[in-house]
Structures are given as C-alpha cells and as structure tokens.
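Figure 3 (text version): structure tokens given as input.
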C-alpha cells in the first residue's frame, strides 16, 4: 500500500513538472529577450495542446522562409502522384544531341554533369548542335524569379556547354565529389565535359528522321524528391514542384477548399525565397495558425499515397541536412521530431511535428537577423513542448538513401528503324 501511494505521489510530482501553455508562452517571451531576437511584436509561436491552439501572436502574418516547403509538400500531395518518376530522354547522332525533358524538378547541375560523364564514357566530347524542348527545366533559382522561361534554360545550358566552361565545371564537380562522399560514393577524379557552341530550343525533336541512339534518365519517385527538398532545403525542387502542382490547381484555391482563410497567407514562391519584382521584394507570409493547420492536414494526405511523414520530412537525430545537429541537448527529440527549418537574412523559422502521446504540430516564426540565437530559442521551445507532453514516442526509423550518385545515370533504349 505504501509503495502504491509512493508511486502515485511520484507520478503526480512528474506531472507537476509539465509546463502550462501560459508558462510556455512566458518562456517564449523571456527567451526572446535573453537571446536579443528582436521586438516581441515581430515573433510568433504556436502548437496544439489538448486539441486547441496555444501560443503567441498565432494569427499575425509573419515571414516564413523555407517553412514554405512544408506547404509545397502538402500542395504536391493533394495534386500530384507522389509515386511518379520523370524520364529525361537523350537522343544522339554523331554530332548532335537533343534533350527531351520529362519535367524533372531535380534536373540541376549535378545531373547535367552526370549526363556529361555518361556521354564521355560513350565517347562523346563535342556536339555541333545541342537542342532541348520546353520540358527540360534547367534555370538558376537564385534569380529569385518564379517564371521559368525557355531563354533562361538556354542561357544556363549554354554556359555549361560553352568552350569557357572549365572553371565552373571544376568548381561544381569538386562540390559534388564532397556531397557524394558523404553518401559513400566516390565520383571519378576527371571532370566530365561536353562542348557545343550551338545550343537551341526546338519544339520538335530535330533528330527523329535521322539514325540516332536513345538513352533515358529516370528520376527517383516524387516523394523521394520531396524528401531531398526538405532535407537540403532545395529551392529549385520546391519551386518546380510548386509550379507543376499549380497546373492542376492553384494553391489559394486548395486552401479555400480546405477552409483556410485567404487572409492568413500570402505565397509568392514555392521555395520560400523572396520574389523580386519592379515594385520591390515580395516575401511569403503566413500566420502561425495557418501553417499549423496545413501540417495537421499532411499525415492524412500522405496516407492516401501509402506514405508517412518520415517519407517526406527530415527526422531529427537521424537524417542529414538542415535539421542535423538540432535539439542536441534534448535526447527525447531524436526520432520524435520531424521538422523543416527556414532561414533568410532577416528570418528564422522552424515548423513540424513532435511525436508524443499525440501528434503535436508546432510552428516558431522569428523575424530577426540573429538567426543563430533564434535557432537556440527554437530548440529550447521544442524541448519545453516535449516536457509539456511528458516525453515523446520516437519512431523506428533508418536513414534512407536518396542518392543520385549511385548506379547508371543513363539507360540505353534499343531502337528499331
């Protein structure tokens, strides 16, 4: 009997350590002051507590930076087939190449150089003419533009194929060698290189009436591309996926269908990068509550694709990327916090879910230039929410390999003429 009373007393004492929503809000305010984050009227946080929204300035519009990518993930889940792959077809003659794009949202410099490497192995070094169609997406995301034009793709492709391309190819290949090594893959020492001084857009394949060879590069399934997008905060993938989803339905219309108030968000890009226009800079804005709602929609949406949150989001303590190293002083977070970071010059944000006795969505939005300090604040806030829920229930998760470096980049497709 005494033992039972002691255990009950211990349980009650432990529960007393849990923080009330008011205490967590108080902590948020004091941490903002301690870390000199900035004016309190420019900071927000929220989380779900007993099926209600708790937090501070939960309905105020804030810059959200790359937390946008969680909105893009949900947008894709609701409009696209997440198991689909993208096929980029390469047509070759003795002195010409045509690239028939497959709309691959992740056909960036690393894939182009892997294509160069594959072509070098086949004996190709120089083409008199290289053509491409409208479905090849190869532009610079740092242009801060959301419109992808054929001329942007042609200009960038010409840069990589130009006779003066050796400097950029050396720089990029060294970068990719480091990235590949992190995934246990050793790329060749020799920098791959293909040259052509004539790069043009062609609506129709100009090689179809010639004797050609055809090769295909097939991407990973879209959900794995989304995982890379969220792990690395890849802006190119995010913008391209957002654009593809927008062909099915506009993001505002989807939000309207889901009962999300149009006043609670202003989204200009799928990546979270600000869009530069002639009037000025346009940043993605949303309220804490809006992001919280979208995160709460995501698990059910993914289940319709037979997927879980860990299939598309970074898992703390397990995955590499922008979430690696976070919550290092909170062991309960490992395998139990799935989140997306966001950083701009004047913004630091963090949003995701905590796996506790319930699924606990949370959002922290800091308008600040003190981004390192903001990350400390955010990590502490997550630990306090975990304490409020008396711990976590980590998932059994093994880091998945989504490497583009392994295996053959091109597959030969036999043709009969």
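Below: residues designed for each position.
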């Amino acid at each position: 009997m005494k033992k039972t009373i002691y255990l009950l007393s211990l349980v009650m004492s432990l529960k007393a350590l849990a923080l009330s929503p008011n205490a967590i809000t108080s902590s948020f305010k004091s941490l903002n002051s301690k870390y000199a984050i900035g004016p309190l009227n420019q900071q927000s946080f929220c989380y779900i507590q007993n099926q209600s929204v708790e937090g501070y300035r939960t309905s105020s519009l804030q810059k959200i930076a790359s937390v946008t990518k969680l909105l893009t993930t949900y947008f894709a889940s609701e409009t696209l087939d997440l198991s689909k792959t993208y096929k980029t077809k390469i047509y070759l003659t003795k002195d010409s190449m045509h690239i028939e794009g497959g709309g691959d949202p992740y056909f960036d410099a690393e894939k182009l150089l892997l294509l160069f490497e594959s072509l070098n192995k086949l004996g190709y070094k120089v083409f008199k003419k290289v053509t491409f169609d409208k479905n090849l997406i190869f532009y610079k995301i740092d242009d801060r533009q959301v419109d992808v034009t054929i001329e942007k793709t042609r200009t960038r492709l010409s840069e990589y194929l130009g006779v003066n391309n050796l400097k950029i190819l050396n720089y990029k290949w060294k970068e990719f060698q480091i990235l590949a090594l992190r995934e246990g893959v050793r790329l060749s020492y020799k920098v791959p290189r293909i040259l052509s001084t004539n790069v043009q857009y062609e609506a129709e394949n100009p090689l179809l009436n010639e004797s050609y060879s055809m090769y295909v590069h097939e991407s990973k399934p879209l959900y794995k591309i989304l995982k890379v997008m969220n792990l690395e905060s890849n802006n190119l993938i995010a913008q391209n996926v957002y654009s593809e989803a927008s062909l099915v339905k506009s993001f505002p219309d989807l939000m309207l269908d889901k009962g999300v108030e149009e006043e609670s968000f202003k989204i200009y890009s799928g990546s979270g990068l600000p869009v530069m226009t002639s009037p000025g800079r346009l940043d993605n804005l949303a309220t804490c509550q809006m992001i919280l709602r979208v995160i709460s929609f995501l698990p059910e949406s993914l289940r319709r694709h037979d997927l879980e949150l860990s299939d598309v989001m970074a898992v703390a303590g397990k995955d590499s990327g922008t979430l690696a190293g976070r919550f290092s002083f909170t062991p309960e977070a490992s395998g139990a916090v799935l989140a997306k970071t966001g950083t701009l010059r004047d913004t630091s944000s963090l949003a995701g879910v905590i796996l506790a006795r319930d699924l606990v969505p949370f959002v922290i939005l800091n308008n600040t230039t003190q981004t390192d300090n903001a990350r400390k604040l955010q990590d502490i806030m997550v630990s306090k929410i975990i304490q409020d829920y008396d711990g976590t229930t980590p998932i059994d998760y093994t880091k998945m390999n989504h490497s583009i470096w392994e295996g053959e980049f091109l597959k030969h497709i036999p043709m009969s003429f």
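Residues 1-17 have pLDDT under 50 and may be disordered.
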